[in-house]
Design brief:
seven-stranded mixed beta sheet; 0% helix
């Protein structure tokens, strides 16, 4: 049974930082690309950042230079370091792996 459990969200002022974590179980984590997605109210879910098994990364343009995705295969955990947060980053953040999704963690950035 695949489980993805996100944590680390919260309320932060603009310019602040948060670090999200996604703990995976029930799947060979190291073999898979894994990504962070977000969904704001009334909007579609979008890919924020992705890291492949090789370690290569992709970032949505609006988060480049502010967000850093990383993975620890030994801990089967995905991370997203978010710096210089903006109100437009407010959303529910999800990790996605091989078609599976976590329950999400809310990030709210106040202006």
């Amino acid at each position: 049974q695949v489980q993805l459990v996100e944590s680390g969200g919260g309320l932060v002022q603009a310019g602040g930082s948060l670090r999200l974590s996604c703990a995976a179980s029930g799947i060979i984590f190291s073999d898979n690309a894994v990504g962070w997605y977000r969904q704001a109210p009334g909007k579609e879910r979008e890919l924020v950042a992705r890291i492949r098994s090789s370690g290569s990364t992709y970032y949505k343009d609006s988060v480049k230079g502010r967000f850093t995705i990383s993975r620890d295969n030994a801990k089967t955990t995905l991370y997203l370091q978010m710096n210089s947060l903006k109100p437009e980053d407010t959303a529910m953040y999800y990790c996605g792996l091989a078609g599976y999704w976590g329950q999400g963690t809310q990030v709210t950035v106040s202006s």
